[in-house]
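User: Let's play a game. I give you a shape written as tokens, and you guess the letters that built it. Ready? Here's round one.
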């Protein structure tokens, strides 16, 4: 007899000799689902093998649960007979999460038990509570406080890409269709998607170096999700490098980071964020990387690598927001974000990584390296027959991080004084003077004006190598 496969709420153990492992499974199932069943006397593949069952063995199971599971639970432990074989069935439930086994915390992933830290477990429960309540809760925005242009643009795009049927749509129809109303108010999801109340803030900045010290530009954008997706994409594309390719007499401009990668990261960032937290969405453009920060810790119990390697089930934190972005084709498929980003990056040779903590998730795209600016030196060499031979000697000119910071600041404002530059990059005036001399000698800048009122002209920009 075979009972079928193990699941997230069903666990098999061959015998009570696996008591310790059984307690771990009970704790992990309780933490994920609050209810489950465990059998002693069944192989992992579901085959009933049976075991010796006595009053003593039943008491051993009860004692193990009492000694190991905290907070305490009161399971139903019973002997059952299947196919002539004796089993012990343990049915358990509990709502007082989180539960531990022998002082350690676990979460159920498919049919496996994964140990987690208390902080990670806490984030899991906060995220699940948030997922159930936040989107549907009424916001303070009235049902009339909507961005009609954004709603119209949404349904037109959704129809044009074939993800919504053709029909006569209006703003009230869209709001009702997707459950974005709560009485006379917009729901939280409705306000953040289409409200005209500027409910969401996006920070965007350009930094002179790969550290968040000297910024060249900083913007604060406040709008709804639909508008901010376009604003964020435009900001990035305007501030990264592009190259030209000419094919079949046609000139094509290509960004250093594929637009599809940027769109996928942004859409997933807004779809899976926590919107009642204490941090904001953030985009930082550095010489060597572009970072995308999304508020709220990573939602899934599956690691990004698991989504890339296989077809894991999608964990959707904001189901309504994700659905709207899917219909608009901002998101291609549910649960495929990491797989698509990984594929696109590999195809174009882009490297990436990510960082995750209890406050937010950061995706990091490393900007492709390209050839540095080249300085050409012309030498006139006289040969024996007195003819002139011209040699073009090219050498790569490199700048250190401090030189890059000063150059970037001068590109923004060539009238900065040495004292102003020193204050902005947290260096001494003498250090700044040495940097200015170095940049001048390397051909990046020249000085015009008097010594009392100098002004710098940037001759060329630096491309990181």
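Assistant: Ready! My guess for every position:
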């Amino acid at each position: 007899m075979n009972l079928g496969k193990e699941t997230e709420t069903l666990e098999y153990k061959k015998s009570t000799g696996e008591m310790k492992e059984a307690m771990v499974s009970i704790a992990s199932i309780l933490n994920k689902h609050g209810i489950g069943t465990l059998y002693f006397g069944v192989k992992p593949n579901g085959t009933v093998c049976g075991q010796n069952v006595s009053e003593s063995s039943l008491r051993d199971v009860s004692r193990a649960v009492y000694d190991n599971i905290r907070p305490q639970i009161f399971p139903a432990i019973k002997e059952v007979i299947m196919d002539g074989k004796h089993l012990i069935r343990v049915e358990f439930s509990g709502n007082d999460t989180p539960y531990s086994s022998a002082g350690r915390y676990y979460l159920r992933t498919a049919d496996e038990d994964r140990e987690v830290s208390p902080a990670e477990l806490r984030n899991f429960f906060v995220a699940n509570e948030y997922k159930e309540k936040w989107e549907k809760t009424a916001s303070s925005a009235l049902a009339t406080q909507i961005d009609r242009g954004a709603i119209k643009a949404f349904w037109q795009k959704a129809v044009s890409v074939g993800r919504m049927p053709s029909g006569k749509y209006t703003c009230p129809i869209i709001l009702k269709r997707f459950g974005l109303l709560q009485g006379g108010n917009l729901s939280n999801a409705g306000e953040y998607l289409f409200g005209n109340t500027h409910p969401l803030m996006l920070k965007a900045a350009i930094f002179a170096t790969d550290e968040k010290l000297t910024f060249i530009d900083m913007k604060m954008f406040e709008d709804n999700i639909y508008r901010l997706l376009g604003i964020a994409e435009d900001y990035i594309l305007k501030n990264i490098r592009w190259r030209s390719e000419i094919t079949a007499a046609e000139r094509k401009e290509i960004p250093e980071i594929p637009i599809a990668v940027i769109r996928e990261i942004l859409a997933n960032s807004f779809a899976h964020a926590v919107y009642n937290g204490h941090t904001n969405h953030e985009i930082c453009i550095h010489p060597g990387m572009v970072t995308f920060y999304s508020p709220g810790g990573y939602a899934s119990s599956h690691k990004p690598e698991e989504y890339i390697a296989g077809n894991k089930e999608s964990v959707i934190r904001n189901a309504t927001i994700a659905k709207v972005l899917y219909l608009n084709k901002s998101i291609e498929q549910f649960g495929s974000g990491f797989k698509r980003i990984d594929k696109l990056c590999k195809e174009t040779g882009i490297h990436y990584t990510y960082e995750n903590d209890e406050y937010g998730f950061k995706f990091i795209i490393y900007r492709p390296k390209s050839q540095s600016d080249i300085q050409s030196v012309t030498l006139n060499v006289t040969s024996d027959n007195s003819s002139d031979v011209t040699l073009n000697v090219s050498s790569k000119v490199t700048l250190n991080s401090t030189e890059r910071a000063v150059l970037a600041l001068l590109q923004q404002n060539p009238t900065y004084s040495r004292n102003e530059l020193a204050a902005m990059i947290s260096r001494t005036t003498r250090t700044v003077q040495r940097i200015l001399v170095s940049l001048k000698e390397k051909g990046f800048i020249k000085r015009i004006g008097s010594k009392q009122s100098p002004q710098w002209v940037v001759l060329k920009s630096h491309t990181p190598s």
